[in-house]
Task: structure prediction
Amino acid sequence: MKKATLFILLLWTHASYAQDDLLKMLNQELPEETIYTQATFKATRLINGQTMETISKNHLNFWISHRFGSVNSGFISNFFGLDEARIRLGLEYGITDRLLVGVGRSSEEKTYDFYTKYKVLRQSNDFPFTLSAYGSMAVNTMATGYVMNSESQMKFYSNAERLTYTSQLLIGRKFSEKISMQLVPTFIHINKVENPYMANNLFSLGMGGRYKVSNRVTLSAEYYYNFLDRDVYQLETGTPYPYHNSLSLGVDIDTGGHVFQLHFTNARGMVERHFIALNTGTWENADIFYGFNIARTFSLGRDNKRNSK
Result:
């Protein structure tokens, strides 16, 4: 009886070791499943600038953006800027889950902007960040001879002089369920600048992030630092460089079908030409503009249409 019991124990122990070895072999042979990170940011825009997010295939985003007047414009005369506003209306469409195209029209310099964004790399358990490439073209349709926000007069002698081009790499990472960050190396080319001592090419580094307060509410911030020598401009012209870096703070509220973005920013424009290259506002002088973005997503896929019948 004792011999039989001992034999059974030895057999069970051997079987257990054999099973463990078999499981190890299977784990080594089966590749680890790639799990991609979802919802690094709530929308394709952070505040003024883009995020590395795209939209799903056959989905359409409709953007409504407002920037009111400066809060330092007074209560009686301008109700802290709420008596005036700039507006941008935009549409963007997902050609695939990783590629979108968009178009918008802004009342700032009566500008039309056309853009595309492609998600090149995606953060996952195998890769540490998401990389998207963004490119846009903005067309200024103001009548020649108008006065800019810098109080300079701008005259155009050809339609090509009205164009501005922007290229960006959007490098984002979701560090946790609450914290996401991104870096945005930016290159802007303006075909015609207002002053010969201003460069047509501008390099800027954007940075931004969000903190998730709850499933519906997040706090956001973004900043664009422009690499240029303002002292040279002042020495040549005798006046300070008229444009400043852009800093914006906001709150996002997700209602399911809509995303509401409420924010304060020293940049009134809503196209890269305006809020990065030609921003005249400063926080030090209370040139701060209250604004909001509203995004509504529509599904245009065939499956969705069938389900709605």
Observations:
- The radius of gyration is 26 Å.
- DSSP finds five helices and 14 strands in the chain.
